[in-house]
């Protein structure tokens, strides 16, 4: 089977490339901005036997047409990533994420060769604020918060109120059929990627699997991602700044679990379009998560233990809670995340230690030459 992985030199892509290179029977082509993998740890030593790396731009229509003309399955992973950074580089995110998906969509529609399946990496960012339950009104969906909540008697309740009765609400799992209400630039571009590929895969008769990941962590992550940036901040002895009260929640999933979900999607017998939330179910408040990461960095790198700083600052449109529902992927693909959060974080800290060691050696080499 011939597989094309756009963005295959990146964080998730390189782990997937390694997993496929270990399985027999695949010819793998990887498209990245450069010919180099961001990190080689996920790859087996003999990867060059089955993997070809192409450097190019996802907006190069001729190149993408040529690549998909020789592919049975396409994993589309190219993206500019990171919610926070996206607001500062709107044109760049739109060009890479929406432009790239448009280029792939047009190539799929125009190509005479029929690709058998496309698997798109999307994100739970597409939902914005997730589903909640109100004791009085039942299931509700609050809007994103653009204004900081008021201080009442010196206290702030950061949780959004019920959009109907203004009472207290609690997050509940958000299924794939929920309206996509994400409004960060990143979310807008991931939503557009989904729309472009859903419409055009249907037109071209190509089955499509849309995988909406929660926050992915693991070795080799781009620093635009929160976990990687956080580890480096902690390793440098700086206290991470947490917005609001630090009790906003997120789901964290290990890259090895994400790769397993990709392999299941590859083997999945599908004839149209299917969406999956890919989550671990291990929700954690930001404060708990950062504290856990801080302890792991302290244990593994033997650096001083750093305590996060809760700032009470509000960033308009930040999602307070989104617990996306992993029930569908469990039922249809028998997928369940296996990596324990604590163990996954420690493994990432061990990798960071190795990265820093290599970085120091290189600096010493340059200084000595
Ligand atoms: N990492 C996460 O937490 C997370 C969460 C949800 C969804 N996702 C999605 O998963 C996918 C992979 O994310 P990642 O964390 O591995 O990202 P990454 O930044 O590590 O990798 C991105 C890849 O895209 C390539 N690329 C970027 N711009 C390009 C261009 N113009 N032309 C050609 N190649 C280009 C890079 O070379 C790299 O190989 C993305 O679609 C992302 O939106 C990631």
Kindly describe this structure.
The protein is an alpha/beta fold and 369 residues long. The protein has 2 domains: 2-131 and 173-368, Rossmann fold (3-Layer(aba) Sandwich); 132-172, no CATH class. Helices cover 38% and strands 18% of the residues. It contains 10 helices and 17 strands. A 7-stranded parallel sheet has the order 3-2-1-4-5-11-15, sandwiched between helices. The mean pLDDT is 94. Residues 7, 9-13, 31-33, 38, 57-58, 77-79, 81, 96, 121, 123, 213, 215-216, 222, 225 line the site of nicotinamide-adenine-dinucleotide.
Write the topology of this structure:
Layout lengths: L1 E5 L4 H12 L4 E6 L18 E5 L5 H8 L4 E4 L6 H4 L3 H21 L6 E7 L8 E3 L3 E3 L10 E2 L2 E2 L12 E3 L13 H20 L3 E6 L1 E3 L8 H10 L5 E2 L6 E6 H13 L5 E6 L4 E3 H16 L7 E2 L16 H7 L7 H28 L1
Parallel strand pairs: 1-2, 1-4, 2-3, 4-5, 5-11, 11-15, 12-14, 13-17
Antiparallel strand pairs: 6-7, 6-10, 8-9, 14-16
The structure holds nicotinamide-adenine-dinucleotide.
Q: What's the number of structural domains?
A: 2
Number of strands: 17
CATH level-1 class of the largest domain: Alpha Beta
Mean pLDDT: 94
N/C terminus separation: 47 Å
Query: Order of strands across the biggest sheet?
Result: 3-2-1-4-5-11-15
**Percent strand:** 15-25%
Helix-strand sequence: EHEEHEHHEEEEEEHEEHEEHEEHEHH
Number of helices: 10
> Rounded to an integer, what's the Rg over CA atoms?
21 Å
Helix amount: 25-40%
Shape: globular
CATH topology of the largest domain: Rossmann fold
């Amino acid at each position: 089977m011939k597989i094309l992985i756009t963005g295959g030199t990146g964080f998730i892509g390189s782990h997937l490339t390694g997993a496929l290179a270990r399985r027999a029977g695949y010819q793998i082509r990887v498209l990245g901005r450069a010919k180099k993998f961001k990190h080689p740890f996920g790859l087996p030593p003999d990867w060059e036997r089955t993997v070809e790396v192409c450097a190019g731009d996802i907006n190069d229509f001729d190149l993408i047409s040529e690549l998909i003309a020789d592919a049975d399955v396409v994993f589309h992973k190219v993206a500019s990533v990171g919610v926070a950074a996206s607001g500062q580089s709107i044109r760049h995110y739109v060009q890479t994420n929406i432009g790239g998906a448009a280029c792939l969509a047009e190539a799929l529609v125009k190509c005479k060769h029929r690709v058998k399946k496309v698997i798109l990496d999307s994100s739970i960012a597409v939902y914005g604020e997730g589903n909640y339950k109100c004791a009085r009104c039942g299931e509700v969906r609050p809007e994103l918060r653009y204004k900081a909540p008021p201080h009442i008697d010196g206290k702030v309740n950061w949780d959004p109120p019920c959009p109907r009765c203004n009472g207290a609400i609690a997050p509940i799992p958000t299924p794939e059929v929920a309206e996509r209400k994400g409004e960060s630039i990143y979310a807008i571009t991931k939503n557009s990627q989904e729309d472009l590929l859903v419409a055009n895969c249907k037109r071209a008769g190509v089955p499509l699997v849309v995988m909406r990941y929660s926050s992915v962590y693991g070795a080799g992550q781009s620093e635009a991602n929160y976990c990687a940036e956080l580890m480096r901040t902690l390793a440098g002895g700086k206290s991470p700044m947490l917005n609001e009260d630090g009790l906003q929640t997120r789901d964290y999933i290990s890259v090895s679990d994400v790769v397993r979900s990709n392999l299941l999607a590859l083997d999945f017998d599908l004839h149209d379009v299917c969406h999956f939330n890919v989550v671990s179910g291990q929700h954690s408040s930001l404060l708990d998560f950062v504290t856990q990461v801080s302890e792991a960095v302290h244990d593994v790198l033997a650096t001083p233990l750093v305590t996060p700083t809760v700032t009470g600052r509000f960033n308009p449109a930040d999602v307070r809670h989104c617990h996306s529902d992993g029930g569908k992927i469990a039922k249809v693909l028998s997928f369940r995340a296996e990596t324990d959060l604590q163990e996954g974080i420690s493994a990432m800290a061990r990798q960071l230690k190795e990265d820093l060691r290599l970085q120091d050696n290189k600096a010493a080499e340059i200084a000595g030459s």
